[in-house]
Specification:
The chain has about 150 residues and is of the alpha+beta class. It has five helices and four strands, in the order βαβααβαβα. Helix 1 packs antiparallel against helix 4. The longest helix has 17 residues.
Length: about 150
Amino acid sequence: MTAAEPDLFELSLGVFATPDAAAGLAEEARALVAGHAPALAGWSVRVDDGDTPVGPGDPMTVAELYAELAEQWSVENPGREPGGRAVRELRVGVLADPALRRGLQDRLAALACPDPGHAGPCPVPWSSGFSGPGGDSRADLERLYGHLRHGVR
């Protein structure tokens, strides 16, 4: 059995976090994908603020996409001010075997919640997802991460 041809994927992790917490998660995400570098044909990690459009020409922002995270934090922390917390999104572009993508997505989510069976809410509300090469997302993935096909990060 041969491995599938690598393709472009974008893994996303939306968080309601302070800038320092989001930066820490981004560093952990970089270490995660760097640790898988021999199996990846290429990768890229970035953090987008809440006012970043979800996609090119899309009127929806990251904050609107993940609005439930701020609401969740408010419900779980009644009467507390969020301080510097805001919605942010980690976007991890990978050129990888499709089977590896799923494992990376699970490990990326585990950065935000290492113990899914813990009691109570997560300290940092989060949500994860991915965009694959099918359908309408192909052009966006090529625009954002096509450089990975050429070994450029």
